[in-house]
Write a structure and sequence with these properties.
heterodimer; A: mainly alpha; 2 domains; flat; B: alpha/beta; Rossmann fold; 19 helices; 6 strands; 7% strand
Chain lengths: 124, 473
């Protein structure tokens, strides 16, 4: 019993919350900054891709599952992991499928440039 | 010299989480250009996989046999369901799929908050006020997103009408539920009694439902974007509950991006977000015209052959795609037509309305699938500037996004929404299945315009006939 109580006492001190709020505010600015530059043709993949990113809630579901005791908590934890996995796996797969359609055009020039960048042999 | 540094496992875990954060930011940045978008998304997937894998090093998870086994079973089940669904669903059903994947994420975030609360309760601890507040945020935002996405899915799948569902006293009931939740939050914070959290959970699920029911038609894309943002914030709230920076950053990135996207979309429709959410947009339909439009007015219908000749000898043709293109899966055929016209020396471009289809960029995805070059896709303002010098505006399955009522009829529900001004072109060709109004359910004056010729039928069949007609012309 000492362990969990000590951990909670530590996070309840209130110093942690300010640090997390700082991270939250900075992340909001980064999100706005990065996303406001996305062209409209990529809005659907953006929505789908960011949908996949919040699937990382799976990490949270696994973390809480580690602490779960008793049937109700285990059942809810199981459900949370299942739902979060749907979100993260489905999200990335469906976004990849959308972006597959944006594959490079068969025009010669950009294709040649792209392969030049990828092939280190060209530079040597 | 390699110093034998032994990092504590928790530090390794935090470092991997940090790398995952960088991966997610790079993924979003990659989506900024078509060339790097796919690689960006794959980087995001790798980052997520690494973060999930390293989570299994948590001592609590490693040492709890039953919990670990259950966790693995749940993950395998999730993956077994998600992969085939994501792979096999048709392109037209993408919006529904995004809605459902979004909803389950919100549900997971809400569950995490509830489990944490049950956990603290079972230890006999009374959570600090700010812990209760974090839990409540996760529960409320997560469950609103869950039930809201479920209704959006049901609407898009057309299991219930896509039209706004209204009933007397709707605004009052919504406000009452909102206030009830607000009041219960205060009670729960003051008393710390977890029973209130479950009442709030129930009310939040109801709130998601009743907020989405009156939103219909053309506004669904904006709604999905908003709910996506909500789920992001719910995940960030879970991050606060679990003291996990990865969840806070990832959730906040999505929350911020969703809000930006939602704002871009609502301003593209010339309306404010509160107006979209609370005005039961399109509910006026029944007053302005029935299912089949106004039967007493005549429209001009043409044959594919006539239109084929008109197109083949045009100077400039602008194709205006809409949801009908997606339904008919006609993106490849429309490209064939464009190729045939280009071969005849016609200048062909596509005018893309920001909210054409049912998701932002829906048309771009479809046309990209058919290998239409990006430089042929013009955004609304660009297309409108060229419209007066356009010989033919070819409207393929679009309706509300070219409806001049948005500019001319102050009483119309879409008044104020910018449109593609197809009516300024010399000729207008409409490919439509019937005279039925569009998704927003509003009659379109443009159909009765003297410059307009209608070609009824499935867009793909009609386009195929046009390709033949152009080749013969």
């Amino acid at each position: 019993m000492i362990g969990p109580v000590a951990v909670i006492a530590q996070t309840s001190s209130g110093t942690g919350i300010i640090e997390y709020l700082t991270v939250f505010v900075l992340a909001a600015f980064v999100g706005i900054e990065v996303v406001s530059k996305v062209p409209s043709i990529l809005h659907t993949p953006l929505m789908s891709g960011s949908n996949a990113i919040h699937g990382i809630v799976l990490v949270g579901a696994l973390t809480i599952m580690g602490e779960a005791h008793g049937t109700p908590q285990l059942v809810l934890g199981f459900l949370a992991i299942f739902l979060a996995t749907l979100n993260v796996v489905g999200g990335f797969v469906v976004t990849d499928r959308m972006l597959e359609m944006f594959k490079a055009k068969p025009e010669k020039r950009p294709a040649a440039q792209a392969s030049g960048v990828e092939d280190p042999g060209d530079r040597a | 010299m390699t110093p034998a540094v032994s990092l504590p496992l928790s530090t390794v875990r935090d470092l991997v989480y940090l790398l995952a954060i960088i991966g997610f930011i790079m993924a979003l940045k990659g989506l900024g250009s078509p060339r790097f978008a796919r690689r960006g998304n794959q980087l995001g997937a790798v980052a997520a996989a690494a973060a999930v894998a390293v989570t299994f090093t948590l001592p609590t998870l490693r040492h709890a046999g039953t919990n670990l086994v259950l966790a693995l079973i749940a993950m395998v089940l999730g993956a077994v369901v998600a992969v085939p669904v994501a792979r096999l669903v048709k392109m037209t059903a993408m919006p529904q799929l995004v809605a459902i994947f979004n909803g389950v994420g919100g549900g997971a975030a809400a569950l995490i908050s509830i489990i944490e609360l049950l956990h603290l309760h079972s230890l006999g601890l009374k959570p600090a006020v700010y812990v209760t507040a974090e839990v409540l945020l996760g529960v409320i935002i997560g469950s609103v997103s869950f039930s809201g996405s479920a209704i959006a899915f049901i609407k898009l799948q057309e299991l219930i009408t896509g039209r706004p569902i209204t009933y007397p006293g709707q605004q009052f009931i919504n406000a009452a539920v909102g206030f009830a939740i607000g009041a219960l939050i205060i009670v729960a914070l003051v008393t710390g009694n977890i029973a209130f959290v479950f009442i709030i959970l129930g009310l939040s699920l109801v709130l998601g439902l009743i907020l989405v029911l009156p939103i219909g038609g053309a506004d669904v894309p904006v709604l999905i974007s908003l709910l996506n943002s909500f789920t992001g914030l719910a995940v960030a709230a879970s991050g606060f509950v679990l003291d996990n920076n990865l969840l806070i950053v990832a959730g906040t990135l999505v929350g911020a991006s969703g809000i930006i996207l939602t704002r871009l979309m609502s301003s593209a429709m010339g309306r404010s977000l509160p107006n979209i959410l609370f005005s039961a947009f399109g509910a006026v339909i029944t007053a302005t015209g029935g299912e089949e439009g106004d039967a007493s007015r005549s429209v001009r219908t043409g044959t594919a052959e006539d239109v084929g000749v008109l197109l083949a000898y045009a100077r400039k043709v602008v194709i205006i795609p809409g949801y009908g293109l997606a339904v008919a899966q006609a993106q490849h055929t429309v490209r064939e037509l464009a190729d045939a016209l280009t071969a005849k020396g016609v200048d062909v471009s596509y005018a893309i309305h920001p909210v054409a289809g049912r998701m932002p960029g829906h048309m771009n995805v479809l046309l990209a699938e058919a290998n239409v070059p990006y430089d042929k896709l013009e955004e609304m303002d660009e297309a409108n500037a060229e419209m007066p010098t356009t010989t033919v505006a070819l409207v393929v399955g679009a309706n509300d996004t070219v409806n001049p009522a948005a500019l001319s009829t102050p009483g119309s529900p879409i008044y104020g929404m910018p449109i593609i001004k197809a009516d300024e072109a010399e000729n207008i060709i409409f490919l439509k299945r019937s005279m039925r109004p569009g998704f927003a359910g509003i009659d379109n004056e443009l159909l009765y315009n003297a410059k307009t010729t209608m070609l009824f039928g499935d867009a793909k069949d009609t386009l195929q006939k046009l390709v033949t007609a152009v080749a013969d012309a």
